[in-house]
User: Fold these one by one.
Assistant:
Number 1:
Amino acid sequence: MKADAFPLGVRGFAVDDISERGWEGVRLEVQDYESGSISFVCRSLEIAVAAPSRAQTRR
């Protein structure tokens, strides 16, 4: 795998309701909206906001 093959960070996600597809136990599709490097489906989603690290607050 190339060193740049996986991003160091993801800035945001797109969450789409795909329940109309009729997949049992699957309701949402989550994707990295910038590069599409991460994508998965899930039944539910919990969004938690993390506090910035000390390194981020010093900028």
Note: The chain has a mean pLDDT of 81.
Number 2:
Amino acid sequence: MGWDQVLAQVGVAGAAVAAFAWVARSWITSSFEKGIETHKAQLRREVDVAIERLRLHDPARTEVHKRLFVSSGSELTQKILLVICERQPRR
């Protein structure tokens, strides 16, 4: 067996390993993305239920909480708005 045959076999093996790694990575990424979307949908349902409960309990603060939990992107912004809401006197 010559060096050219050894290099050809190593090249084929390397290509096979690279193809397997790509397929495995794609499958894992797809699984995580599906899990994340499911989790986001569940969180959205929980937030909607919490907003509805708040609306029934304290209608004056409902709009503030909708903005807080639905439209805010950053976690820090949500915490700041939550503290502001909690410190406001109830009407």
Note: The CA atoms of residues 34 and 62 lie 31 Å apart.
Number 3:
Amino acid sequence: MLSLALTLLLSAAAPEATTAPEPTTNTAKPQKPKKICRNDDNTGSRLKKKTCRTQDEWNNQATDVRGDVRLGGAGGN
């Protein structure tokens, strides 16, 4: 009786070989751009601020700063 119960239990837990595996669809997520983190020194503070951006965002920020310098800074005299 015990062997019958174990046999039924094991057969129920074993996967069936007759079912075909379902085809998988390729739903891979697009890769996110890699973030680059830099530590910014704040004047008058011992703490550093960590800024993380993509390479394109870093490049755009550099051109924005150069444009501000040509215009006389953020104050705009």
Note: The CA atoms of residues 34 and 72 lie 33 Å apart.
